[in-house]
Amino acid sequence: MDTRVAIIAIIVENPDSTVRLNEILHEYSAYIIGRMGIPYREKGINIISLAVDAPQDKISAVSGKIGRLDGVSAKTVYSNTGTKA
What we know:
4-stranded antiparallel β-sheet; alpha+beta; Alpha-Beta Plaits; 51% strand; 85 residues; 2 helices
C-alpha cells in the first residue's frame, strides 16, 4: 500500500472541541509520526502540527473529520513522493 508523508496544521479556537479532537487523533494514532502543540494564550487559541505517514484516503479522512469540528480549522500539506508501506 502506498503512503504519503504529510503535515496537518490545526488551529483550535473552541476549547470545547478538544475532547473530540483527541478522540479522532487516537483513532488515527497508528499513522501519526509526531505531534507538537503550542498554546497561544494571548489569542486564546491552540496551534497543533501533526506529522503523519499514511495512505492518501486516511490523511484526507482525518483532516476532514478535524476540520468539521466546531471552532477547529485544519489544512494539509503533502510530500511530493509516496512510499511503499
